[in-house]
């Protein structure tokens, strides 16, 4: 009887040890799988961020727009909105088309950041350009007009996330959001709002 009890205890002990090792190996396997999956996601995000960075330098519309923003002092004038999609002579994209494309692109990057699809350490690659863009007086004047023109129709501006980022980071003053600021001479009014 005692031998039978010892045998039963040892079988139960073997079963407990077997279950323990099964659970432990499952947990270790799960942790290893999670780490590989996490690393894979990080690499995919890094590739995506790299692609976004490269587009800034390799896309002619974006690189031309950045050059215009940085080095052309007075590009946003009353004639800006009548320039069409391309220069009439040679189908070269107009300044308006280049600026719109670039601002849309950087607004998309701000969207990714504000929705936490890319993180602070990813956003660092774009921050310089976005801050330069949002602090440029000509860009601010253009965004002011587009923002209030869109608001007239109760629509989000096509550069909504760029403006939202600039607002959250105090790159725009409060007068920007007042459509009457154009009457004080603070901003030009080139669109009908």
Which descriptors would you attach to this protein?
single chain, 193 residues, mainly alpha, 67% helix, elongated
Give a short summary of the structure.
This protein has 193 residues and is mostly helical. It has helices spanning 2-58, 60-71, 95-114, 120-134, 137-152, 160-168.
Architecture overview:
- The protein has 193 residues and is mostly helical.
- The protein has two domains: 1-44; 59-184.
- It has helices at 2-58, 60-71, 95-114, 120-134, 137-152, 160-168.
- 21% of the residues are buried.
- The mean pLDDT is 90.
Question: Which structural category do the helix and sheet elements fall into?
Answer: mainly alpha
Overall radius of gyration? 29 Å
Low-confidence stretches: none
Distance between the termini: 98 Å
Helix content: 55-70%
Helix-strand pattern:
HHHHHH
What fraction of the residues are assigned to beta strands by DSSP? under 5%
Largest sheet: none
Q: What's the quaternary structure here?
A: single chain
Whole-number total of structural domains: 2
The total count of strands amounts to 0
Mean pLDDT metric: 90
């Amino acid at each position: 009887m005692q031998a039978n009890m010892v045998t039963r205890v040892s079988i139960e002990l073997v079963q407990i040890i077997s279950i323990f090792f099964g659970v432990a190996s499952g947990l270790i396997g799960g942790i290893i799988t999670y780490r590989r999956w996490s690393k894979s996601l990080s690499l995919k995000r890094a590739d995506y961020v790299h692609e976004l960075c490269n587009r800034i330098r390799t896309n002619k519309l974006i690189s031309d727009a950045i050059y215009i923003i940085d080095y052309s002092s007075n590009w946003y004038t009353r004639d800006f909105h009548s320039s069409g999609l391309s220069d009439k002579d040679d189908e070269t994209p107009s300044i308006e088309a280049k600026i719109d494309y670039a601002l849309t692109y950087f607004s998309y990057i701000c969207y990714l950041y504000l929705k936490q699809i890319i993180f602070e350490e990813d956003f660092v690659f774009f921050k310089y350009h976005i801050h330069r863009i949002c602090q440029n007086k000509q860009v601010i004047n253009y965004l002011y007009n587009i923002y209030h023109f869109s608001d007239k129709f109760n629509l989000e501006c096509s550069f909504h996330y760029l403006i939202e980022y600039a607002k959250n980071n105090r790159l725009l003053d409060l007068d920007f959001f007042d459509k009457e600021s154009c009457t004080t001479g603070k901003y030009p009014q080139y669109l009908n709002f």
